[in-house]
Every structure is written in structure tokens, then in C-alpha cells.
């Protein structure tokens, strides 16, 4: 007898099982996403990896640095003098992205630096503050002594011989490569805006033409801190930053002295880029480079409301003095020789530069400071050094350029794989056209003023008050030819890879090339007015500084 009940239940269960199996088979299966592993990119050296999902290789690196230093200070007299200690903490981040293309490697490189630095102006860097690359504290005790900065140090693209963006100037060669303090004489513009093309000529030889931002290579005209609104000769007020007036003699009195003076704005405008050309040779034994640069030097027009009451001043030759453009230039040769026969890693740099109207290109201002007309070479220095690229001749109303040259030697020696030292020395001179000092002296005598430094109406510079055309004139520091020696040595210990612990000492000597000048710090004279002569004249000044550095790269 058939058990219909059991048969019915078994058939129903089988159908349900079959239906369930069919439904599960019909459902889509969700697969796990593939895991993207970071792959090492060995094409461009250590540290590169592929950005997941792309064929671009990336390297992220950085630096942490601590520094402390000491700088000799000549005096505590005067604002900003008397500082000896220096401190800095620095952070650097680098991003290097490279992709291989049919045209070669496409590269983008980024670097940012952030730092907090304190001390005298040698560490806080008035140069970087003047160029807008740093900002100061504004407290009574901290102004000029505490400074922070966040800088776009590098941001450039390289492709098929093209370099475009923010990068180191192609003109530079040695650029303080072995130094801790980095203030030997020589060009070192580590960040500027440029557009350049490099052609590979074969056999290690390359040629580069670079169009570079002119603002980073302009050292200002010599200018007096007088207001063109002053009503009479010898009457002055403070005049800074936005304009820089320079006097032009417009007429002479019967005694041969100026009877009227007008002012011209000598602030340089950004009118054309600097053009830099470089030929470089690289070989296993080292490298050699020849650099050349051309830059414009320009002034604005006459300033309204001048002391003589004229808007379009006329110089003595009778022509109007208006906007002008002249040109400066510089050449530099450099040689680097690798010396593994002395010790592995040893190398020697030799470099020399000469220029007209190009003090930043020659690097004559590397120690004293950039983007200023004149300055003391250290706090409390006995005299100012004049650094202008050019001067407006007050007799002719024409631009006249200074000339300068520097020479540098630097040697790096490894005592052992962990210990190394650098030894370096540099020398430079700064010269101004003859007759300029005498021309400004005429203005001073005409004004009947006893000018600071003895030339022209009162200057920004400090100096012993002596008259222009008296016994004190030979002791004036204004627009004097000067020389500098900067030399130093270091000892660096690297106990592990990418860690440096080092100390460096540096000696500097600034000198007047002919004669002596008044002493800023010992302000005393014999006599008054035109016959005032200094009691303590000086022809040179020495300084010493030292710095300790702890640095980790990764």
C-alpha cells in the first residue's frame, strides 16, 4: 500500500531543495577588489615608488636641522647692536615625481622650507626679509631678532630639456656647497623664478639659456634718505621704502657750487628678465662651468616737489633727466675636481667672477647682505660697506655702474668615512667710478650741511659727521672702494647615514682699499665743520663667527 503522505512530503522537500539550488546559482557573485601593493621604482634611484594605479614614480624626503651660533659684535651702541647668540630650527619637505615618456623623463619637483630663527641679522637674515621671504616679530626686544619663514624653495617642471618654475639660478656653480654658515663670497641664488632650456651636446657637455626673474638680482642704487618735498637745501625728513631720491645738480652759482638741486626716483622697476647663458662639462674627474649674465639697470623719472621746485630737472648739460635704462653684466668660471686619490669623497672647487652693475652675480655681498645700498658688515662694525649696483651721477644725471670681482677656493676632505672637514677662503673687491664722491661732496657743501659720512645731504648710513670739502673729506666712508676676505673651516661627524653633527668657524675682514675712514663706534673729532677730522680713523675691521649644526636627512 502506497504511503501517499510520505511520498508527498518527500517530493515537496526535493522541489524546495532544487529551487533553492537554482536560485543560489542564478545570483551574481561579488568578487573581492584586487589589492594594490606599492611597488618599488628602481629606475631613478633609491626611495622611489610607483603611485598606485599610475606609471609615475614618487619620492618623498625631508630634513630636520638645528643650529646655534656665535657672532662677534663690535658694540652695544645703537639700535640692533650687541647681539652675539644665534639659533635656528628648520624643516624641509621634498616631493619628486618622475614619469618616463617618449620625450624622456617628465619631472616635477617641490620643496618647501619652514624655519624659526633668532639672533643678530646674520642668522635672522635681513636679506630674506627685504625680498619678502621672511616675516619678523614686532616686539620691543624681538624686532630684528626673531624671524619665521615659510618659503616655496623649489617648484619646477623639467621636460625635454625645459626647466620652468622656481629653481636655483643656472648661473651659480659652487654655491657654498661644502659650508655650514654659507657666507663665503660668491653667487648663491638658491630660489628664483625662471624659464630655461638645456641642450645636451654629447660627451658630458651641455649648454643652457635661462630667462630669470630680475627681482632676485637687483642690488639698489645708492640713494640719500632725503625727501624731495624738503623746501630748501639742507632741510630733510625721513624717506624710505617706496621711493629712493637721488639728487641732480641743475645749476651752479658764480663760485662754482650748486645753486639748485632736483631729485630723481632711482627705484628699479621690473622691465625685462635677466638672461643667463651657461656651458657646462661633466666627467668622472669632476666638472667645469662658464656662466654669463646680462641684466637691466633702470630708474624712474623726476620726483615732483623737489628742493629746487622743478618737476623735470635739467642737468648741467641742458638735457632733461627722465627714466633711463642701462645694463649690467657678469661672467663666472668654475672648476670642480674630484680627488679620490687623496681620500674617497674628497673634492676641490675653484671659482672666480667679475661683473659691472652686478654685485649679487659676483657674490660680493654674500657676507654683508643683499638688497641694500650699504650696511655694516656686522653689528657694531666701525664703518659701512657700499654695495650698490649703480649710482646716478649728480653732475651728468646719468647712470654709472660699480664693478666687483670675487675668487673662491673650497676643499672637502674625508679623514675617515665618518669624519670630514671643509676648508675655504674667498676674496673680493667693490669699486665705484672715480669722481662720484667729489660730485656728492659738492652738494653737501652747497647745502651748508655737515652730512653723515661727509657727502651729500644726510644719508641712511651711519658715520662720523665731517664736512664734505674740508679736512674730513678724505675720511668719508661713502662710496669708497672696499675689499673683503671670508675664510673658514669645519669638522663634521656622520656616525650613521644621513646624520651630520658639525661645527664651523669663520673669519671675515673688511677693508678700505685706499686710506682710512671715520669710526662709527668712536664718534670723536678734532675741530668742527669743514675742518673736523676724526680722532680714531680706521682702515679695516675683523670679525669672527662660529656655528654648530645637527642635521638629519631622510
Structure report:
The structure is a single chain. The protein is 9% helix and 43% strand. It has helices spanning 4-26, 121-124, 126-130, 359-362, 436-447, and strands at 49-50, 56-71, 85-101, 104-119, 135-136, 146-159, 162-167, 192-202, 205-212, 245-252, 258-265, 274-283, 286-299, 324-338, 347-356, 374-376, 384-386, 390-392, 399-401, 403-414, 419-431, 482-493, 499-512, 525-526, 533-534, 540-553. The protein starts with a helix and ends with a strand. It is globular and about 100 Å long. With 554 residues, the chain is mostly beta strands. Strand 20 (403-414) and strand 21 form a beta hairpin. The protein is built from five helices and 26 strands. Mean pLDDT is 82; it is low at 225-241, 305-311 and 447-469. The strands form five sheets. Strands 2-3-4-6-7-8-9-12-13-14-15-20-21-22-23-26 form a 16-stranded antiparallel barrel. A two-stranded antiparallel ribbon has the order 10-11. The protein has a two-stranded antiparallel sheet with strand order 16-17.
Amino acid at each position: 500500500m502506497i504511503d501517499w503522505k510520505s511520498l508527498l512530503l518527500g517530493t515537496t522537500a526535493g522541489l524546495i531543495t532544487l529551487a533553492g539550488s537554482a536560485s543560489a546559482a542564478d545570483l551574481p557573485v561579488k568578487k573581492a577588489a584586487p589589492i594594490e601593493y606599492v611597488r618599488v621604482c628602481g629606475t631613478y634611484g633609491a626611495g622611489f615608488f610607483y603611485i598606485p594605479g599610475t606609471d609615475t614614480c614618487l619620492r618623498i624626503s625631508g630634513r630636520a636641522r638645528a643650529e646655534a651660533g656665535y657672532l662677534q659684535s663690535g658694540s652695544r651702541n645703537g639700535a640692533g647692536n650687541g647681539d652675539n647668540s644665534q639659533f635656528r630650527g628648520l624643516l624641509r619637505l621634498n616631493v619628486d615625481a618622475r614619469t618616463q615618456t617618449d620625450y624622456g623623463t617628465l619631472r616635477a619637483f617641490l620643496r618647501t622650507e619652514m624655519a624659526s630663527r633668532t639672533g643678530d641679522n646674520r642668522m635672522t637674515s635681513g636679506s630674506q626679509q627685504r625680498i619678502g621671504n621672511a616675516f619678523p616679530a614686532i616686539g620691543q626686544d624681538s624686532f630684528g631678532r626673531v624671524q619665521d619663514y615659510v618659503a616655496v624653495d623649489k617648484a619646477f617642471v623639467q621636460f625635454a630639456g625645459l626647466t620652468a618654475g622656481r629653481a636655483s639660478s643656472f648661473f651659480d656653480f659652487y654655491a657654498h656647497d661644502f659650508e655650514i654658515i654659507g657666507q663665503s663670497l660668491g653667487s648663491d641664488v638658491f630660489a628664483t623664478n625662471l624659464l630655461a632650456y638645456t641642450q645636451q651636446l654629447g660627451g658630458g657637455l651641455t649648454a643652457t639659456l635661462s630667462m630669470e626673474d630680475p627681482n632676485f638680482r637687483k642690488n639698489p642704487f645708492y640713494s640719500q634718505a632725503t625727501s624731495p618735498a624738503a623746501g630748501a637745501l639742507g632741510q630733510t625728513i625721513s624717506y624710505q621704502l617706496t621711493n629712493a631720491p637721488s639728487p641732480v645738480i641743475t645749476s651752479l652759482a658764480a663760485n662754482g657750487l650748486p645753486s639748485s638741486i632736483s631729485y630723481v626716483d632711482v627705484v628699479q622697476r621690473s622691465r625685462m628678465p635677466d638672461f643667463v647663458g651657461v656651458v657646462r662639462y661633466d666627467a668622472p674627474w669632476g666638472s667645469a662651468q662658464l656662466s654669463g649674465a646680462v641684466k637691466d639697470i633702470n630708474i624712474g623719472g623726476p620726483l615732483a616737489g623737489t628742493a629746487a621746485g622743478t618737476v623735470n630737472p635739467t642737468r648741467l648739460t641742458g638735457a632733461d633727466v627722465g627714466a633711463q635704462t642701462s645694463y649690467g653684466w657678469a661672467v663666472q668660471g668654475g672648476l670642480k675636481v674630484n680627488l679620490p686619490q687623496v681620500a674617497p669623497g674628497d673634492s676641490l672647487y675653484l671659482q672666480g667672477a667679475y661683473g659691472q652693475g652686478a654685485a649679487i652675480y659676483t657674490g660680493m655681498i654674500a657676507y654683508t647682505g643683499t638688497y641694500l645700498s650699504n650696511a655694516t658688515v656686522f653689528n657694531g662694525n666701525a664703518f659701512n660697506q657700499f654695495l650698490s649696483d649703480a649710482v646716478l651721477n649728480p653732475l651728468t644725471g646719468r647712470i654709472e655702474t660699480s664693478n666687483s670681482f670675487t675668487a673662491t677656493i673650497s676643499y672637502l676632505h674625508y679623514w675617515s668615512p665618518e669624519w670630514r672637514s671643509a676648508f675655504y677662503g674667498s676674496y673680493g673687491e667693490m669699486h665705484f667710478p672715480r669722481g662720484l664722491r667729489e660730485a656728492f661732496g659738492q652738494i653737501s657743501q652747497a647745502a651748508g650741511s655737515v652730512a653723515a659720512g661727509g657727502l651729500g645731504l644726510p644719508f641712511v648710513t651711519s658715520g662720523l659727521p665731517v664736512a664734505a670739502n674740508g679736512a674730513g673729506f678724505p675720511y668719508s666712508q661713502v662710496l669708497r672702494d672696499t675689499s673683503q676676505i671670508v675664510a673658514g673651516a669645519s669638522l663634521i661627524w656622520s656616525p650613521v647615514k644621513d646624520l651630520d653633527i658639525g661645527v664651523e668657524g669663520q673669519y671675515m675682514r673688511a677693508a678700505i682699499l685706499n686710506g682710512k675712514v671715520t669710526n662709527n663706534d668712536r664718534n670723536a673729532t678734532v675741530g668742527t665743520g669743514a675742518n673736523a677730522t676724526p680722532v680714531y680713523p680706521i682702515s679695516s675691521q675683523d670679525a669672527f663667527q662660529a656655528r654648530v649644526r645637527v642635521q638629519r636627512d631622510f
